[in-house]
Amino acid sequence: MTRSGSGKPLPLFRLGPMDGVDSLSVFHAAAELGIECVIITSPATTFVSSGYFDNARSVLDLNAIAAGNIPVFRRRIGGGVVLLDANQVFYQVVLLRDNPMAPRVVKEAYLKFSRAPIRAFAQIGAPVEYRPINDLVVAESGRKISGQGAGVVGDCFIFVGNILIDFDYQLMADIIRLSDKKRESFVRLLENNVSSLARELERSPPKSDVEDILAKEFMAEFNTLVQTPPPEKLLERARKLSVYMTSEEFVFEESERQHNSIKVREGVYFQRD
Fold first, then answer.
1. Are 81 and 70 contacting, i.e. CB atoms less than 8 angstroms apart?
2. 2 pLDDT higher than 60
3. Please, are residues 97 and 74 in contact by the beta-carbon 8 Å criterion?
4. 201-214: pLDDT as tens digits
5. Which domains does the chain have, with CATH numbers?
6. How many Å apart are CA 208 and CA 195, to the nearest integer?
């Protein structure tokens, strides 16, 4: 295990665009290997990510997903179904559970690790607020512009989130199993409650600028954070996990969870039935 804490350097891995699902499997790989780090990356291609407890067959429109040749990746932490693509930047914090920097209470984790992204949004020109428990919303409109999650994988505490540079409302609605009438209503609800930098700024800032600002703010938050190349074993493990975590065996594992509603943002849900 690679332990950071007590003043020891914490690696910052800036991985740039990764091959689709590798951009999520990489933090699972870090947790499995016990590599403490902060990761900034993005997917080069579009994919769907389901939460660990989701019933993928129940909630997803598998015909639409197959027609679009969109992979489905099942996370090992909870949360709902999300659409991920090249118009997003991910931040991922991996800490051993006994590290003093790892909060013991979930709410404290969100408060602590949301600070760097909140400052980054302000630097970019789109001020946001933390909306308990896991959203960042545009300060003026209350629309969600970042979804976050936390959990435990192996011996590690995980905190992850994204910055929406742009968002495809229609495609998000298309991947969910809905009637045509319900799908139209879902698109409208998404438009009213989810935003992006492109929408707020009326332009899409370069992804590299967003990543630079985010890295700077995380380095301000963790004074031991040092940008470093990722170890090859991390990337190799991520690629192997990508194969398993998109396999039918794992994605469609039996789940008794019922998906009567879809969470759009904190306090806003769409009833499927």
1. no
2. no
3. no
4. 999 999 999 999 99
5. 10-246 (3.30.930.10)
6. 20
